[in-house]
Amino acid sequence: QRQQLQALRFEPTVTTDGHQVELAGNIGGPADVDNVQENGGEGIGLFRSEFLYMNRNAAPTEEEQFQAYREVAERMAGKPVVIRTLDVGGDKEIPYLDLPKESNPFLGYRAIRVCLDTPELFKTQLRAILRASHYGHIKLMFPMISNVMEIRQAKQLLKAVQSELRDASIPFDEQMEIGIMVEIPASAVIADVLAQEVDFFSIGTNDLIQYTMACDRMNDRITHLYQPYHPAILRLVKMVVNGAHQHGKWVGMCGEMAGDLTAVPILLGLGLDEFSMSGGSILRVRQLIRDLSYERAQALADEALKQDSQQAVEELVAKWSSH
Ligand code: PEP
Ligand code: MG
């Protein structure tokens, strides 16, 4: 079984009828790159940069960040590395940032909201990422985007940093793609609008499910309401994929759902272009997709969207898989 999976390490992720997708890995830092490569990851779909900021007494310097981003980019040797800018707040505390205690931290001051409000902190990170982009294939991604103004503000700050670098003759990738996480329902609903502002989307289902279901992802008493296969979630994913494709942009997913073997056939059928997950899940998902027909997956997705509940979707997939 393990050997069968290992044989797929350098194989493309392509369906029986020739539809290809990309399988990438999620990492928290350079130390996680090996695991993604050993498991045949075709890129890094989510580099959670906040891990560089955690468990220390002060923010990492531009140089420290640059070294970490550069190391990942170089070790991925031309394969794409999506670096997500700082996503603090919510469940991730960073003592030296002195963020206020809030009664609804997941609905509060976090991620891009903090970054746009503390531009010096943000620009340091943007400089480090831009500088590293010269050494590999880096893409930049903003978390927790809820409206078009946040994208424009973030891009404005990026532009300012780019022109500083140009003035200082510091090289960076002028073509670096800029994307956003779609993890707030409002953004999923206007995905066709947001697609015109960016090069790609990555769907963050961990948060998208929590916000859509009004269900705290950390609260053990309501896990039964945290429903990845709720038809509302599937319909939102469809809106995001269609919104992106309508404008010729690619769309990935980097939440846990992307590595969930029950969800994968539906997500494939909905037209997702990239799946990013923990390294350990990649080969199983590749094996599954290589046994599927895209045409049948599309038919499954159409049916799934019409179901009345998570339970009905699970039964549908089980029945579909056994045929
Ligand atoms: C997500 O929300 O799905 C996601 C990938 O980001 P995080 O889990 O870091 O919030
Ligand atoms: Mg998230």
Explain the overall architecture.
- Helix 3 links the parallel strand 3 and strand 4.
- The protein has helices spanning 2-6, 33-38, 62-75, 112-117, 119-132, 148-167, 185-189, 191-194, 205-212, 231-246, 264-270, 282-290, 294-305, 310-321; strands spanning 13-14, 20-27, 44-48, 80-84, 137-142, 178-182, 200-203, 250-253, 274-277.
- The chain is globular.
- It has 323 residues and is of the alpha/beta class.
- The two termini are 22 Å apart.
- The protein has an 8-stranded parallel barrel, surrounded by 4 helices.
- Bound molecules: phosphoenolpyruvate and magnesium ion.
- Phosphoenolpyruvate (PEP) is lined by residues 46, 48, 87, 183, 204-207, 254-255.
- Its cofactor is Mg(2+).
- One of its GO terms (molecular function) is metal ion binding.
- Belongs to the PEP-utilizing enzyme family.
Structure at a glance:
Phosphoenolpyruvate binds at residues 48, 84, 206-207, 217. The chain has 323 residues and is of the alpha/beta class.
- Overall residue-averaged pLDDT value: 97
Q: Percentage of helical residues?
A: 40-55%
Unreliable segments (pLDDT under 50, ≥5 consecutive)? none
Q: Could you tell me the number of beta strands?
A: 9
**How many distinct helices?**
14
Radius of gyration: 19 Å
Shape, principal axes of CA atoms: globular
State the end-to-end CA separation: 22 Å
Largest sheet, in brief, is: 8 strands, parallel, barrel
- Would you tell me the structural class of the helices and strands? alpha/beta
- List the helices and strands in order: HEEHEHEHHEHEHHEHHEHEHHH
* List of distinct ligands in this structure: phosphoenolpyruvate, magnesium ion
Lateral arrangement of strands in the main beta sheet? 2-3-4-5-6-7-8-9
Query: What is the percentage of strand-forming residues?
Result: 5-15%
Enzyme class: transferase
GO molecular function: kinase activity; metal ion binding; phosphoenolpyruvate-protein phosphotransferase activity
Cofactor: Mg(2+)
Catalytic activity: L-histidyl-[protein] + phosphoenolpyruvate = N(pros)-phospho-L-histidyl-[protein] + pyruvate
